[in-house]
Design brief:
The chain is mostly helical. The chain has one domain. It is built from four helices and no strands. It is globular, with a radius of gyration of 13 Å. About 15% of the residues are buried.
């Protein structure tokens, strides 16, 4: 999911993969006048993906939850960002 989210942002905003960061994502979303709630949700989902990669625990459940969060945030972004 992490790769899907990063790839989506890179393609949507034409940001090179080398320049991708949480801050560059936030800036790109704000420049497109994205609602603050969606900006926060997108950043939070990216952070959760990064945390899940390294945190111990039930990886299957985390991945399923992150998958649904990722789908939700990408769907909202597609509706709201022109």
């Amino acid at each position: 999911m992490s790769q899907a989210l990063w790839g989506y942002i890179a393609d949507k905003f034409m940001i090179s993969r080398a320049d991708l960061s949480i801050e560059s994502v936030r800036i790109a979303l704000v420049e497109k006048e994205t609602p603050d709630e969606l900006v926060d949700q997108f950043v939070e989902t990216l952070n959760k993906c990064e945390y899940a990669r390294f945190a111990p625990g039930d990886a299957g459940k985390k991945m399923e939850d992150l998958y649904h969060l990722g789908i939700e945030v990408i769907t909202k972004a597609e509706r709201l960002i022109k």
